[in-house]
Amino acid sequence: MIVATHQPIFCPWSGFFYKMFLSDLFVLLDDVQFPLGTTWVSRNRFKSQQGVLWLNVPVWKKGKGLQLINQVKMCYETKWKEKHLRSMEMAYKNAPYFSDHFPFWQDLYNQQSSELFSLNFQFIEYLKTCFQISTPIQKSSSLTIDLTGNERLIELCKRVNASVYLAQYEARKYIREDLFSAAGIKVEYFRFSHPVYPQLGGNFSYNLSSWDLVFNCGPAIKKILLRHYSKK
Q1: Residue 100 resides in a domain
Q2: What's residue 228's pLDDT?
Q3: Is residue 99 included in any domain, yes or no?
C-alpha cells in the first residue's frame, strides 16, 4: 500500500490532489506544530483581475505558544469571512463554473466553527470530490504517534501497513531513505507538472489554489490534473 502525508493546508493547490490521487491512503498531519510564521495552513493564492489575490484566515496566536494544527482557533475580531466571499465573487463571478461551486463557500462560511482544521478539512473533502479522487483520508492524530521527523513517518507507515511512502521529489533532501529501508518501507518520489488551463485575467498564473481550476474548468479538472500522468 502506498501512503502519502501532507499538512492540511487552506484550499490546496492542484499538486496536493495529484499526490492524493497517486496514494492508496492520504494522511493529513493535523497533530504537528502549527508554523509560527506565515503558512499555507491558513492562507492561499487565487487570481483576480488585478493579479494574485491572497486570502488569509486569521487565527489566535498571541499567548498560545506552540500549537498543534488541530488546536488552532480562528479569530473573528474582523469580518474576514465576508471579505473572503466578496473577494471570491469579484474575482471569479465570470468564470464558467463559478455558480456551480460558490454556494459551497457560502454554506461553509455560514457555519460557526472555531477550528481552522475543520475549515480546511471541509475544503479538502469538497475539492477531492471535484477531482473525482477516491483515495481515503485519515488524520494523523488518530494514530497517536509520539515521534518526530523521519521516525514519525516510518511509524505512521507501520501503523497503516504501508509498504511505500510517497513524497514529492523536492522533499528528498529531508528523507532518510536508509531509515525507511531498514524498516522495510520503500520511498518513492513523484514530480508534478503543473497544468496550464483556460484561466481568467490575462497571463497564466501558476500554483494557485485548486479553486481557480475548479471555477474555470468544472468537470474537466481531473482530466487536466492527470494530463501528464502515466502508469509505471
Answers
A1: yes
A2: 73
A3: yes
Q: How far apart are CA 48 and CA 11, in angstroms?
A: 16
Claim: this prediction has a pTM higher than 0.70: yes
The alpha carbon of 94 is separated from its chain's Cα centroid by a whole number of angstroms, namely 25
137-139 β-sheet, strand order: 137-139, 25-28, 2-6, 164-168, 186-190
Give how many domains the chain has, as a whole number: 1
Q: What is the pLDDT of residues 121-177, one digit of tens each?
A: 999 999 999 999 999 999 999 999 999 999 999 999 999 999 999 999 999 999 999
Domain-embedded: residue 232: no
**In degrees rounded to 5, what are phi and psi of residue 9?**
-80, 165
Burial 213-226 (b: 16+ CB within 10 A, else e): bbbbbeeebeebbe
φ/ψ of 175, rounded to 5, equals -95, 125
Owning domain of residue 72: 2-225
Q: Within 10 A of 79 (CB to CB), how many other CB atoms are there? A: 10
Residue 106 lies in a domain: yes
Pairing assessment for the beta strands 51-56 and 137-139 based on DSSP bridges: unpaired
With beta carbons less than 8 A apart as the criterion, state whether 216 and 200 touch. Answer: yes
Residue with cell 492524493: 20
